[in-house]
Amino acid sequence: MNNLDRRQWLKTIGLTSGFALIGGLPAVAWEQTDSRTITDGPVRLSSNENPFGPSKKVRSTISNSFDIACRYPFQYLTQLVNEIAEKEGVSRDCVVVTGGSTEGLKAAGLVYGLEGGEVIAADPTFQALLSYAENFGAYVHRVPLNERMEHDLEAMARRVTSKTRLIFLCNPNNPTGTLLNKDNLRDFCLSNEDKAVIFSDEAYYDFIMEPDYPSMVELVKEGRNVIVSKTFSKVYGLAGMRIGYLIARPDIADRLKDAVMANTNVLAIEAAREALRDNEFYKFSLQMNAEAKRYIYKTLDDLNLPYIPSHTNFVFFKTGRPIRNIISEMERHNVIIGRPFPPMDEWARISTGTMEEVQAFGSALKKVMT
């Protein structure tokens, strides 16, 4: 779904004030749930995956693409790059396709972390870029979140020095699910992009329900010193296919392309192309995510457990107990939740899943907490 259509859809069905009834979804979307039942294995709500993906249209495309799986992916990549460029409203030389957005994060960590480059980031946040940069000699300034569990942009700006090469923003943030004020975000980027590259990790951008909330791709279009990462792993349900992309000014994109190692594969390319066309599954995924979050919120309210309203497909909540103990106890009840996120050692991250899965989470949590 292109960005203009997405904004119009959000406005039309009133998602900012609560989802419309799911009964309005076409039958093709409901078919996605046919085979999604809990088996004898554990309920996995730990990695922020979309349990409904890939869509049936994408599965069919993957099956029909095996005849070209013997070919190297490069000749098939051009079409996907063109389609991503059209979706994002940029030229094709701004697009870098990667093996999941994590490879893009690591490529940036390599490019800007070499030879003692300094990186500034919130804490806690997603670590892939930061830990990879450290492997190559970078020094990472980890700045604690503010009292609202958001990036403390003022404190991050104060850490900028002549040695700073990159400022990492994960927005919405993983693991807290918080979203920066759009005006503050833009002001921060414009105030600092002449001092360091701004990296905006937008893995969860699709789950933002504010129709006019901007992607920082808008700053790339202005020629700013900004990189944006996006993924097919979340709303599109392709985490196992490993495909994502970066958007950056052409000169920055060229540097990042040189640092990409794994790339992706033919089946993932064709899956991603079909996923971009499958608007009904996109809408279905967002509505099912909202329903699952409502159930999680109610469960936490019933237990009087504090949580942060989320702009993602997971919820971060305070257990009041050491998180490693909670993880072990939940696993004994056949539910896998998110890993620890120090220094917030009493907080847990729970991914949304099917309704059956989040109901299993609710039942297990009540047993563990009471």
From TrEMBL:
<dbReference type="InterPro" id="IPR015422">
    <property type="entry name" value="PyrdxlP-dep_Trfase_small"/>
</dbReference>
<dbReference type="InterPro" id="IPR050106">
    <property type="entry name" value="HistidinolP_aminotransfase"/>
</dbReference>
<feature type="domain" description="Aminotransferase class I/classII large">
    <location>
        <begin position="43"/>
        <end position="361"/>
    </location>
</feature>
<keyword id="KW-0032">Aminotransferase</keyword>
<keyword id="KW-0663">Pyridoxal phosphate</keyword>
<comment type="similarity">
    <text>Belongs to the class-II pyridoxal-phosphate-dependent aminotransferase family. Histidinol-phosphate aminotransferase subfamily.</text>
</comment>
<keyword id="KW-1133">Transmembrane helix</keyword>
<dbReference type="GO" id="GO:0008483">
    <property type="term" value="F:transaminase activity"/>
</dbReference>
<dbReference type="InterPro" id="IPR015424">
    <property type="entry name" value="PyrdxlP-dep_Trfase"/>
</dbReference>
<keyword id="KW-0472">Membrane</keyword>
<dbReference type="InterPro" id="IPR004839">
    <property type="entry name" value="Aminotransferase_I/II_large"/>
</dbReference>
<dbReference type="InterPro" id="IPR006311">
    <property type="entry name" value="TAT_signal"/>
</dbReference>
<dbReference type="Pfam" id="PF00155">
    <property type="entry name" value="Aminotran_1_2"/>
</dbReference>
<dbReference type="GO" id="GO:0030170">
    <property type="term" value="F:pyridoxal phosphate binding"/>
</dbReference>
<feature type="transmembrane region" description="Helical">
    <location>
        <begin position="12"/>
        <end position="30"/>
    </location>
</feature>
<keyword id="KW-0808">Transferase</keyword>
<dbReference type="InterPro" id="IPR015421">
    <property type="entry name" value="PyrdxlP-dep_Trfase_major"/>
</dbReference>
<keyword id="KW-0812">Transmembrane</keyword>
<protein>
    <submittedName>
        <fullName>Aminotransferase class I/II-fold pyridoxal phosphate-dependent enzyme</fullName>
    </submittedName>
</protein>
